[in-house]
Design brief:
The chain is 44% helix and 18% strand. With 356 residues, the chain is α/β, with parallel strands linked by helices. Helix 3 packs parallel to helix 4 and helix 8 packs across helix 12. The termini are far apart. The N terminus is likely disordered.
Length: 356
């Protein structure tokens, strides 16, 4: 690609499912993309064969990115640094990449959880962007990517402002999916956190795709319980929750006191129906925490359910189902348990005495 002073320089840190799809689409737009991955096999595959992307039933190869196992000396400066690592690696990745960010550049967090506040301590709140990912992808082998669900992004800054840099980033990411700019990043993040605490935790315990798991009523009930606890903590934190993808209203989804005790109601039936629809839309999605455990890496549960548990303590709010999820997932990581639908069922039964 010819040098162009108007072409943004972008560093993508982490070339798993999300990072790989984003990088491939940006390369196709003509963006100058450099990739860093801790896995040398991934870097070699991208450099020699390009990104192999399976999306919407079609396959294509995208070449033109430069991939490295570590950030080369003197790399940069970059207009945008996109952090697509696991949450457990976000602070170390941000620290390593920070010297390569332009003074007016932006560092973008694609992680689940509340990672923007961690990154802001490293590069400053004015250079930190939250990028909420509303789609799914996986890397099936080094350099080969499968997009498992459609969707786009919600972008926002910690102070709610929108500036030309944020708008420029949005134009690049439109190649991947629709982009919504939010003036309430915290509200959007907490709503997504509530969903992640349910879907990712139960996907890890159940060891299956979201579509398969959501057909079970007890899984849907656990989802509602987990999300209800997160919503309670968000309210105590003074967060104004945003709808997810413009439709999922966590304030409505959260169980009322009566819904936690009665066997059924029209409203509760509607909430189960909504979760069935979510399962159908994202039926191929697998938990990123489950993939991490399968690869012998630490799951990000402390950044999801664990974050909720810690913040709940400050407000003296009981969150027993999220606390139990943290304990069980750490046991999975230590190989003391094995993910299965039976394990998820036992989790449901073991938390019956602490649920409504």
């Amino acid at each position: 690609m010819a040098e162009n002073e108007n072409t943004a320089r972008v560093l993508v840190v982490g070339c798993g499912g999300i990072g790989g799809i984003v990088a491939a689409n940006m390369v196709e737009m003509g963006v100058d993309v450099t990739c860093v991955t801790g896995n040398p096999a991934i870097a070699e595959a991208i450099n020699t064969r390009g990104f192999k992307v399976h999306e919407e039933g079609a396959a294509r190869t995208v070449q033109g990115a430069h991939a490295h196992a570590k950030l080369p000396d003197g790399a940069g400066p970059f207009d945008f640094i996109l952090l697509a690592t696991q949450p457990t690696e976000v602070e170390s990745a941000a620290t390593a990449a920070a010297p390569s960010l332009k003074p007016d550049g932006r560092m973008v967090c694609f992680q689940n959880g509340l990672c923007e506040w961690r990154v802001a301590r490293i590069v400053g709140a004015d250079r930190t962007v939250g990028g909420i990912v509303a789609w799914g992808a996986s890397m099936v082998e080094p350099g080969v990517y499968d997009r498992t669900a459609a969707g786009g992004f919600v972008l926002g800054m910690l102070d709610g402002r929108v500036d030309p840099r944020l708008e420029e980033l949005g134009r690049y990411l439109e190649a991947v999916g629709p982009v919504q700019v939010s003036h309430n990043l915290q509200g959007a993040r907490w709503s997504k956190l509530a969903i992640n605490c349910a879907i990712s935790a139960l996907g890890t315990l159940g060891g299956d795709t979201l579509g398969s798991l959501m057909t079970h009523r007890f899984i849907r009930r656990l989802c509602l319980e987990l999300m209800t606890e997160v919503v309670a903590v968000a309210r105590a934190e003074g967060v104004r929750l945003e709808k997810v993808s413009g439709t999922l209203d966590l304030e409505w989804i959260a169980l009322t006191e009566s819904e936690r005790t009665i066997p059924g109601s029209p409203n509760l039936f509607a909430k189960h129906g909504l979760l069935l629809a979510v399962g159908a839309r994202y039926r191929r999605m697998r938990s990123s925490m489950l993939r991490a455990i399968e690869r012998g890496r630490p799951p990000a549960v402390d950044f999801l359910n664990g974050e909720v548990v810690e913040r709940a303590k400050a407000h003296r709010i009981p969150v027993p189902v999220n606390a139990a999820a943290v304990e069980h997932i750490h046991q999975l990581a230590r190989k003391e348990l094995q993910p299965s639908l039976d394990l998820a069922k036992r989790f449901f039964e073991s938390t019956a005495h602490v649920r409504g």
